[in-house]
Design brief:
Helix content: 25-40%
Strand order of the largest sheet: 2-1-6-5-4-3
CATH architecture: Roll
Structural class: alpha+beta
Order of helices and strands: HHEEHEEEE
CATH class: Alpha Beta
Number of strands: 6
Protein name: SnoaL-like domain-containing protein
Number of helices: 3
Distance between the termini: 37 Å
Number of domains: 1
Radius of gyration: 14 Å
Shape: globular
Length: about 120
């Protein structure tokens, strides 16, 4: 039986890898953490698949970094975890931007990857 701490550990592993790629401005590494058919909604029109994820993060400014806080988790199925996070993106030339981030992470061939990424701005 898995519990909330297991789900948070899964999310933390996925998010730490995502953050590392974002902070290093390595869009291909960020995209590798997503499923092949991931639905991705950043602050631009949505895309499907890793290519769109890589293009999105390639367009982000150098020096942008991410800091996240996991707010909620839910185990939806054995191989599917929902996460709700607050993320602050910091920039070198402007104030930080805080967003809400909803994720669905899915276990594929023993590894957890992002299958859905949905950002919304805080009011």
């Amino acid at each position: 039986m898995t519990g909330p701490s297991d789900d948070e550990a899964i999310l933390r592993t996925v998010l730490d890898a995502w953050k590392s790629g974002v902070d290093a401005h390595e869009p291909e590494r960020v995209a590798a953490g997503f499923t092949e058919d991931a639905i991705f909604q950043g602050l631009h029109p949505y895309s499907v698949g890793r290519e769109g994820v890589a293009a999105y993060y390639d367009s982000q400014p150098l020096g942008m970094t991410a800091r996240y806080e996991i707010l909620e988790t839910r185990r939806l199925a054995d191989d599917l975890v929902l996460g709700y996070q607050r993320v602050e993106f910091a920039f070198t030339d402007r104030p930080p931007l805080t967003v809400n981030l909803s994720l669905l992470v899915r276990r594929v061939a023993g590894s957890w990857s992002i299958a859905l990424y949905q950002v919304s701005l805080l009011p």
